[in-house]
Amino acid sequence: MDNNLFKNIEKKTGVNMKDILDLANSLQHANFKDENTVRGIVKRVSEIAKKRVSQEKEDKIVKAITKNGDSLDFGTIAKMLNNK
């Protein structure tokens, strides 16, 4: 991929692309029906996004993901983190 593209994304978002790629790799074989796995992913996404997630919000996200655990992507998690 184009390094300039990554640098532009990093500059605009403040998110390190290596962190995003590492997260994407970890999502490929994750069991989204396992609560502990999903909690770990939610915590990692919140760290990358530099957004604090309350316990209540984390519980709601985990419940939604484990209920529909067949497919999930970073965009879905990010939307959940941004909903207030």
UniProtKB/TrEMBL annotation:
InterPro entries linked to this entry: SpoVIF
Protein name: Stage VI sporulation protein F
Organism: Bacillus songklensis
Lineage of the organism: Bacteria, Bacillati, Bacillota, Bacilli, Bacillales
